[in-house]
Please model this.
Amino acid sequence: MTSTRPQATPLPERVRTLVVGAGFAGLGTAIKLEESGFSDFLVVDKGATVGGTWRDNTYPGAACDVPSQLYSFSFAPNAGWSRSFSAQPEIHAYLERTAEQSGVLDRFRFGVTVEDLAWDEEDSLWHVTTDHGVVLADIVITGSGGLSEPKLPAIVGLDSFRGEVFHSARWNHAYDLSGKRVAVIGTGASSIQIVPEVARQVAHLDVYQRTAPWVMPRKDRPYRAVERLAFRFLPFVQKAYRTGIYWGRECFVPAFVVNPHLAAPAKKLALKNIERGISDPELRAAVTPDYQIGCKRILISNDYYPALDKDHVTVVTDGIAEITPTGIVTQDGAAREVDAIVVATGFHTTELPLAEHIKGRDGRTLADAWREEGMTAYKGTTISGFPNLFQIVGPNTGLGHSSMVFIIESQIAYILSALQKMGSHELLTVEPKPEAQQSWNMDVQRRMQRTVWNTGGCASWYLDDHGRNTTLWPRTTFKFRSLLSDFDLDQYVVTTGPRNITSGPATRTKENAA
Ligand code: N01
Model:
């Protein structure tokens, strides 16, 4: 089954709500908009199907490190999960099936790239320029993902390499790795899933490790027939699994945000994982992290360390000096020739490329607004100076311990509450008061000070160039949900007036309408 729709249908000129992205965020939003009666919407996505990151990351071994039962929409349980941790094809198939069954796909347009979003103050509308034409929208909801733009490393000579090079999120399946000499740069969440798979195929594998990750055992197993039957015929059993997993994961929060020493048992397990997987003491030392567990995302794998222990796999810890047409040279002068390089170096997380193309009031881009202080938003969702713009998985909404789908659903509920209040109060625009946004972010950053992400002695993609953590949520997920349970109009600047593009400028009021 595939949720691709033909592109023959032209884009509408005008919609009430435009949603950018058809991953978990965009699809969930579309389903909930429809359910709530806000049917005048359009979802655009540059890809060919729904799925977002689960469509794009097809590298060998791609799987989720959040348990299947929790990594799904609460409103669309999947009784058919085959294992406790799902692989990418199963998650992608789940999203495609959910999309097909939801009946909203007629408002999705695939293969459409958003080039520019500009706020028109005169008509209180977003002008959304795509490669298939311009759409006018009263409201824009972005669900384009925090991990969607591959980041290539700034290594001298990368362009000069004559062999095959590809990023983990843009896997070249046409290239056969069998019997080749291959290098994998990076040892993050993607790499540790790729390395065991690639090690099985290649003649030689060099793994370039800049910083060792903490890797815990992966408690993955196929579901037993009796469990699968129970999920299918006794839905409360599946609900109980989900609830148990959810609360189990919330118990990790204090170790991240209050006292990192609470993670001592996790560290013990991770060290045992190294001992179990690697026989060579020197290699064990090389892969043992020197910072606190939790500072970077904690990874899970049972086959990463055994793969590194194989004779035809070399872990290279000397920094990369340059890439030549035939291989990689490290700072100690060693040159290693390879046929292919897999770049598993992560994503643009704190300088989202789309931010350059979102122009709010007075033509100021989101990138400009974020230049000085880094990414900020009110409740991770709305941004002062950008009326009627809602961002799903915005600043400080990320998680290291639980499911992003829970966060996404919380944000969708907040946005629906906003749309309902805009309707009942006859509001033309809403945008957070600058002081509301500032105080939200001051509170987030104050809480961040004692988290292991800021104090654990590592550099990570959680932190921006100023050392500020603008990506993660420093509290429990149930707190996030409760804070976003109702659209707090008193924290917003609103305008009123008829919704009509010929209506002229709206009456701008400093007061809220609550
Ligand atoms: O990227 P990363 P990722 N020279 O940024 C190294 C999610 N995810 O794609 O640690 C040499 O984590 C870099 O080194 P260092 C998950 O949220 C989820 O692996 O910066 N090395 C690091 O080792 C995850 O956190 C799943 O010193 C360079 C690696 O590249 C996020 O995606 C699966 C380098 C990048 O690691 C990103 O994971 C996969 C350079 N110039 C991903 N530049 C699930 O299971 C960077 N590196 C749900």
Remarks:
- The chain has 15 helices and 21 strands.
- The pocket of 3-acetylpyridine adenine dinucleotide is lined by residues 63-65, 147, 153, 155, 168, 185-191, 208, 210-211, 297, 320, 344-347, 459, 461 (CB under 6 Å).
